[in-house]
Structures are given as structure tokens and as C-alpha cells.
Write a structure and sequence with these properties.
This is Dipeptidase. It comes from Streptomyces rhizosphaericus. Helix content is 44%, strand content 11%. Helix 5 packs across helix 14. The protein is an alpha/beta fold and 341 residues long.
Length: 341
Amino acid sequence: MSSALHQRAVVADAHNDLLIAVTARPPHRWAGYFRERWLPQLRDGGVDLQVLPVFIDDQFRPEGALRETLRMIECAHTLAEGNADEVRLCLDGDDIDAALADGRIALVLALESAPGLDANVELLPTLHRLGVRIASLAHWGRTALADGSGEDAAGSRLTEAGVRALKEMERLGILFDVSHLGASGVAHVLELATRPVLATHSSARALLDHHRNLTDEQLRGIAATGGTVCVNFLGEFLATDPADRTVDRLADHIVHIAEVIGVGHVGLGPDFIKEVSADTTPPCCEDVEYARLVVPGLEGPRGLPLVTEALVRRGLPEGDIEKILGGNVLELFRKELGRPN
């Protein structure tokens, strides 16, 4: 039953850093490498809607952050144009529906922490024109816009530029992503937000007290905006003991969040870091830490049917599982992406 359910459902992945892996290749290989390496995994995992975050590694910050941001955005356009029979880069809900109707994977561009932006909020319309439809303002540390959750001790809210960024994103129809944002920053966003807020890859703090996870209060605040919380698959955000980092533990987080804010506000944000690492790290130098972060079976998109199986074992109704797998994210994107205020 779970296999048929997974195939029938719209499966949305709200966070896969595969652009890092693709842009590690020469530009003339971008489209082909995506087709050879990543497209089969997405198809095997049943992915219908894929968010592509633009994440800038430390080696490019600060001087090269904007150049690398533009390079990764160009990569997304290039791989979409070179695989137009299989994927479509989408700017709004109509684009997504058209892609799904054609049997293509709908791709949506996101900025993760936006270091290329710095405090230049006036560049958001430019990035919007280039296709960006989701953005966050911080990663682990401090930016000109906000503090990441690694700086929670500072108790910082959004900066003045960060407040302007939130307002400009809402005007443009760019979804605000609170994943990685510090606790005080999340509270500030929830005070100011006039449109739905998204968490692209965050798990439940009630089940593991990690600063990257969201408290029940934060979860309720996101749901109150009409937003969605997409659950992170990384083991270190699911359980302290590596032996407990299982698909069933991931299901615990999904079910908890659904119980706190309702099944209509939950999605999936896997963050398949092991697959990206395998694509960008020479075999001689692989960081074994990544192996300990990964839930067995969920190293990459091919493991997504295991999540459906786990939710079926929990006895969740099929309709609820379909919402979690992607229905909620699809509805949010249909209503909000690219829709100007």
C-alpha cells in the first residue's frame, strides 16, 4: 500500500543542496551532470517538486558571495533548460501545476542565508527577476540581516536591513524561510509577518533540544501565519544517540509537529547532505562525520519512500500522509509564490 501511496502523492522536497554538487563541475557539464547523477535519484524517490537552495560556502565569503550566488542561479537555469523534457524552473503556482501536468519535476529557487545580498535589500527585486522565490537571512552565524541559531546567546532580532528585507520579500512574493534563524529572530519575524512563513528544513525541539530545531511555540507561530514546517532528516537534529537516528525517529518528529500545529502545516525538508558530500569530496578525504549524521536509508532522494512506509506504520490516514509528503507545500506555493502584495 505504501508504494502505491507514494507514487500517487505529490512529493515535495523543500531543501536539497544539489546545486552545490552540480556547480562543482565545469559549466558545460552542469545540465549533463544533473541528468546523469541527480535526475535518476529524484525520479526513483518520486520527487515531483524540488526546492533548490543557493548556499554559499565560506570560501566565497564575503568578497565572492554575490558572484557565486549568481553563478549558482545560472546553474539552475542551465540545468533546467538542458533538461526541459524532465524539469521546469517555476516562478509561480501556475508554472508548478503545468510542470506536474506534463510529468516534469517542478524546480523552485531559494536563497539560504543570502550572503551575496549583505545589507543591499534593493537587490531582492533583481534576484526575484532571476527566479528566486524563497529566502532565509542567516545560516549558523551572523549576517547583516539577522543572526543564525548558532548565535542564540546574543538574543538578536532582525537588523534594520533585515526588517526591510522581510517587507520587500512579502511585497515581491518571496517566501520567508525561518530555518537556521535565531530564536529571537524567529519571534521578530512572527511579530511582523503579514504573509505565510516557511521553515524549509527544521525539526522539533520538544523531541531534541538543539538550537536548530523549532519549539512548539515557534511551530504554532508559523502555522498561525498560514505557513508550513518542513521536517529536517539529519540525524543530529533527530536524536542524541546515533543508534536512535532512524526513519521511525524521523516519523516521531513529523507526527509531533502534526499534533502540535495540525497535519495541514507539515512537509518534508530532507537536507540530503551525504549525497552532496559524496559529489563534492574526493574519496581520499571524505569527512566521516557526514556518515554519522545520516539516517540509514535516507542518504539521498531514493530513500523517500521509506518515510511513507514509516507514516503508514503509524496508522496515519492516507490523505494526511499525502499532505505531509507534498500536498501542503504545493498548496502554499500555489497561493504565495511570485504573488506580489
